[in-house]
Design goal:
The complex is a heterodimer.
Chain A: H1 2-31, H2 38-55, H3 63-89, H4 93-113, E1 129-131, E2 137-139, H5 140-162, H6 164-174, H7 176-181, H8 186-211, H9 219-233, H10 238-258, H11 263-277
Antiparallel strand pairs in A: 1-2
Chain B: E1 2-13, E2 16-27, E3 31-36, H1 42-50, E4 57-62, E5 65-66, H2 72-78, E6 80-83, H3 95-102, H4 113-119, H5 121-125, H6 136-148, E7 154-158, H7 166-173, H8 176-181, E8 185-190, H9 193-199, E9 202-207, E10 210-216, H10 222-230
Parallel strand pairs in B: 3-8, 3-9, 6-7, 7-8
Antiparallel strand pairs in B: 1-2, 1-4, 4-5, 9-10
Helix pairs in contact in B: 3-6
The chains are: A mainly alpha, B alpha/beta.
């Protein structure tokens, strides 16, 4: 029964990982950018939430109404000002730019918020749970996180499949020169994609900050978990990212059940196993150019 | 009325010069064919017209407006659409999605999903198929339909017949009267001289980056064309 419990908690944890990884997956899918600043940007969102809730006394869950648009705005400006020029230079430029950005932002966070760990206080919901039976209880907050993760992934997928802008993103992802010939302004489409990605990062960062203690350097671990979720699921597939997050969550929870020290290790081992035996990920993108 | 006026443009790929003072004039409603052998500069000219390359000298005016340095995505909104060499169908999108992306600019005009399907029954049959799974002829038909979705006043068709079976080429060119009939001016680039003469009002022959012959399709003799085409 305790193993079933571990799996259940792992699935719910996977919802948070999927939420954290969705933006990374979207940016890679549309622009082929590996955003190494992804983790630290989630931590920025967490600090923003902390600042709003702790210093300005904004109600905990209401802070996402502010954090999401702020992060989306940062994404839009970041893409137009920094990443589009980097893409135009091609090769390693985008990855180096995002790496540099991660270093700069981490140090800025240290400067303003110190290296102390923080968390966003949510009150009673942090400990509320639904008792299934004597041995299994599901936390309300992890359950909410999981549901939000699934809804966000479904929403993003629908947006990409059905909307005019989403179609333009997929077209630009397939062939950016041909997309220009259809009247699509790639730089603007990319900026919208990054705005959406960072809006989701904003949401994920706030949930992260509510669930756990974070410090300015917490972005590294976040980036690795998000990256593992994307790779396990299959690059460029959003549903894959959800599955990847869940697989990673289960691996960590079951690993921790064996021995509390083995949680992260188990997650990394599953990731390495996927890389070794199924490098395209569990859900391979159906069509690849 | 002159729809497109290209005034002695030079185009370079790095140090290599592909076009030398090429001028083209297209009147609204006419069909002009640019013919010439491989490497004559036909596709380069098309790229310059669509905005994929910027001329190093000379100017391009569309509807009296200078578009020489305008980026390609803005030209689509003005009414210039190109079906590029190699078709460039979006491989992961379905045929219908390819067409919808073609209509991204939401420019008004006679062309929409229904009218494209009517002009190209082949495309209608394949509308749910994914781009990567299309044959060459299907790709070409979708590429033309996709360009039409932007309701262009000038449609640039680059090497429609390249790599296709003659019967497929016939099918695709069969849709041309419907396109010109809807008021679209067409500029075709062709290696196949007979096909070019058949569909066009006027022919311009290029050789090594220069225009060597031009005239009404009916007035040029075979010998004139052969001399211009091969430069002998």
């Amino acid at each position: 029964m305790e193993w079933l419990n571990a799996v259940l908690q792992g699935i719910l944890l996977g919802g948070l990982y999927a939420l954290l990884a969705a933006g990374l997956s979207l940016m890679f899918g549309v622009m082929r950018i590996v955003n190494l600043a992804h983790g630290v940007l989630a931590v920025v969102a967490a600090y923003l939430g902390y600042f709003l809730v702790d210093k300005l006394s904004v109600p905990a869950f209401l802070c996402i109404v502010i954090v999401i648009p702020v992060m989306a705005g940062i994404g839009y400006v970041l893409q137009l000002g920094l990443l589009n020029p980097a893409i135009a230079r091609g090769g390693l430029a985008p990855i180096l730019v995002t790496f540099g950005l991660a270093v700069v932002v981490t140090n800025l966070l240290q400067q303003f918020f110190s290296a102390d760990t923080r968390s966003i206080q949510t009150g009673a919901i942090a400990t509320d749970s639904i008792q299934i039976n004597d041995e299994i209880a599901i936390g309300v907050f992890p359950l909410v996180t999981f549901i939000v993760g699934v809804v966000v992934i479904a929403g993003l997928q629908t947006y990409l499949s059905r909307s005019r802008t989403g179609r333009a993103m997929r077209a630009a992802s397939d062939d950016k020169d041909a997309a220009q010939l259809m009247g699509i302004d790639n730089r603007r489409i990319y900026a919208i994609a990054t705005a959406i990605a960072l809006g989701v990062v904003g949401l994920a960062g706030v949930f992260l900050g509510m669930r756990t203690q974070f410090s300015p350097t917490y972005g590294d671990a976040t980036l690795i978990f998000a990256f593992e979720a994307v790779i396990i699921g299959g690059l460029g597939s959003l549903w894959g990212t959800l599955i990847g997050g869940v697989v990673l969550g289960i691996a960590q929870a079951v690993g921790a059940q064996i021995n509390p020290a083995y949680g992260i290790l188990a997650g990394n081992l599953v990731f390495l196993a996927i890389l070794a035996f199924r490098p395209t990920g569990l859900l391979q993108k159906a069509v690849n150019s | 009325m002159t729809l497109l006026k290209v005034d002695s443009i030079d185009v370079h790929y790095g140090d290599f010069q592909a076009l030398y003072g090429v001028s083209v004039s297209v009147a609204a409603g006419e069909t002009l064919a640019i013919i010439g052998a491989n490497g004559a500069g036909k596709s380069t000219l098309m790229k310059a017209l669509a905005g994929l390359m910027t001329p190093t000298a000379g100017s391009i005016a569309f509807e009296g407006r200078d578009v020489t340095a305008m980026p390609s995505f803005k030209r689509v909104g003005l009414g210039i659409a190109l079906t590029p060499e190699g078709r460039r169908i979006f491989p992961s999108l379905s045929v219908e999605e390819n067409l919808l992306v073609g209509g991204h600019t939401r420019r008004k005009g006679p062309w929409n999903l229904a009218s494209v399907y009517e002009a190209f029954p082949l495309v209608a049959d394949r509308k749910d198929r994914i781009g990567i799974h299309l044959s060459g002829g299907e790709q070409q038909a979708v590429a033309i339909g996709r360009a039409l979705m932007s309701n262009p006043s000038l449609l640039l068709l680059d090497e429609v017949s390249l790599g296709l079976a003659p019967v497929v080429v016939e099918q695709i060119y069969a849709a041309l009267p419907a396109i010109t009939g809807a008021g679209t001016t067409v500029l075709v680039v062709e290696q196949d001289v007979n096909q070019a003469l058949k569909v066009s009002d006027r022919v311009q022959c290029m050789l090594e980056g220069r225009t060597v012959l031009e005239g009404a399709a009916g007035t040029l003799t075979r010998d004139q064309i052969a001399t211009a085409y091969f430069g002998i």
